[in-house]
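pinned: reference chain
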Amino acid sequence: MDHAGSETEVYTPDTLLLGGLVSTASGILASGENRTRGTVVGRVTATGELKMAAAAAGDGSEVPIGILGFDVDAASGAATCAYYTGGDFDQAALTWGAGYTDLQKAAAFDKTPITLKTAY
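pinned: its structure tokens
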């Protein structure tokens, strides 16, 4: 029942972040990247910039270090971004770069406070 001057909002639960001890960091998304929230990122060793982790990258970014917290458009130049470095995440909501097997995805964050789970 709505009351005069009130509004009703539908609650939509977050499908990416499931809980846990959440931690974040900020970084620079490399120029040429246009990525969405939930993208798994790695750090380029030579520049320190972040880009979508890809298994065969060979520049350091093949090692996942976090998950983008927001959509970031760095297509025309490097851009500041926020990314998760800890928490429980729905593995089905993540966007991975090319080349990762299911086993590699499951083990990607083993030495970090990021835990991948299946949402029910």
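why pinned: Residues 107 and 116 are 9 Å apart (CA to CA). Strands lie at 17-29, 33-35, 40-43, 50-52, 64-68, 72-74, 79-90, 114-117.
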